[in-house]
Amino acid sequence: MKLYGVLGVSVPTLLLLTLSACGGKQQNAIAKVGESVIDRETYIRRVEEMPTPVLVSGNQAVTAPAGYTALTRLIREQVLLEWAKAEGVLPTEQQVEERVQREMQNNPQLKQAVSEQRLTLDDLRRQVRVGLAEFNLRTKGVTVTEEEIKQAYEQNKQQFYSPATVRARVVRVRNAEIRKQIDDDLKRGYNFQHIVTKYSQNPVAGVESGEAEYPLEGAIDTGTPQGQAIARIREVLKNARPLQVTDWVSLGDGSVARFEVLAKSAGRQRPLEEVRDTIRERLMLIKGQQTNRDFELELGKRILNTPVEIYSEPWKKQYAQEMDNLKKAIEQFEKARGTPAGRTAPQPQASAPAAPQKR
User: Fold this and answer.
1) Predicted local distance difference test score (pLDDT) of residue 21
2) For the chain, what is the domain count?
């Protein structure tokens, strides 16, 4: 049984792009340009009008205003929450809080986004609540035995191996003059952190700098220039000591990079106790695809049958058109399958398992 590629319940990466509310005296201000303030209403209006990235629907490339896309996603989320509540599988506040802490523990970028107030805890809790509600609906009536978990772990052990890594500061340059300036700064005694900070403020000169985690193990395609560059970086970092600044490493694209090793971690096999809940969730989702295979159909029906009032006339018309298309699609699907239109597929009556516990 292969688990690779099956997604468990997690906080979407897009959460890291969410903007939190401004605090203090500038509650209505998003930014200040010179002496002019960009107020929240202007910003929100621009978001409402801004097109989302182009998506392919059928044979056509389509897009929609970001504001409308956000609205339809919120409608879907609310329908999911109401459905989970009706089925008795809405996650409790304690389950939501436990998952929030688990996500921040396992995702340093997410924790950093919260600490830097790019994402509020309330935003995160809502996304976690919706994710758990959808998971509970998709896996209602599904059980996984301890023996199945152990078997899946043994068959997929390589997925739970954490390779050795190096955490390092890096500065990457293309300009020979900038490279010489950095060398001169190091000779004058400036530390590498100062250099990373200094040159990160000069992107026009073609300088990239920051911190990153580099794996020291795993397959590399050395038949490609990128793979060859990764192999060179890996070899240099393997032999570097903590707090050592490396020589320049050629990246094969006209740029060179220099690193300062901050910390090293050894590779390790994560034990079953550490990944048991992850495996359980994945197995439950695999089974749920069969047990509750009409999930998307049922969700579509519930969205279609839920009264929605939209106060923007253009969006109201667009939503009505989409609901009309959804109704036709459901009718065509059920006609092809031989299910009477409007009839909800039967669902398992067994009680749903509790939301997953901490890893």
Assistant:
1) 35
2) 2
